[in-house]
Amino acid sequence: xxxxxxxxxxxxxxxxxxxxxxxxxxxxxxxxxxxxxxxxxxxxxxxxxxxxxxxxxxxxxxxxxxxxxxxxxxxxxxxxxxxxxxxxxxxxxxxxxxxxxxxxxxxxxxxxxxxxxxxxxxxxxxxxxxxxxxxxxxxxxxxxxxxxxxxxxxxxxxxxxxxxxxxxxxxxxxxxxxxxxxxxxxxxxxxxxxxxxxxxxxxxxxxxxxxxxxxxxxxxxxxxxxx
Length: 227
What we know:
Blueprint: H1 15-25, H2 27-46, H3 59-74, H4 79-88, E1 93-97, E2 105-109, H5 110-130, H6 143-154, H7 158-189, H8 193-205, H9 210-223
Antiparallel strand pairs: 1-2
Transmembrane segments: 106-126, 132-151
Keywords: Membrane, Transmembrane, Transmembrane helix
């Protein structure tokens, strides 16, 4: 499936424009991968040698497809978005952005990696400076750490990644909605410059947002206390 590369969003300074542009740019990139996974599943289901297998055995593949769909919708992600994930998710994993692939994150089990690294560093220093072994001992003890890094890379936690991508999607959608509503409000207020100035001064003096003022007014109306 082909999509037009040019975004139809008119506001080029909005997050929606940047999002739509990236999603269009990398749509086919992800579409090919999704189709390949689906074709592979279809072949396994139709193959007499593998068709008897329980569908649950393909759970990881289904999760991979779900994650690819999320990444396709995102188009690409920024370093700031990955930083927000790490600050907000509360996961045991530390997420990093791929430099080679669009909208791709890796999840690293930092606690286990720290334990491996600490264990390796202790034996490296002990072997070299206490036992006076050869300089090779500064390298050999780190072999388990590198092996675990490779294992972690090859066995990414798909559910945690799916949750992370969903977090970015939800936050983007909320930001896009906020920008759209803000633009609508400003377009209305611009028709009444005097009232706009008064409202701006009121919000600043009371350290409030427009949404907080709206909630306050609604509450007073509900209680019959608006004067």
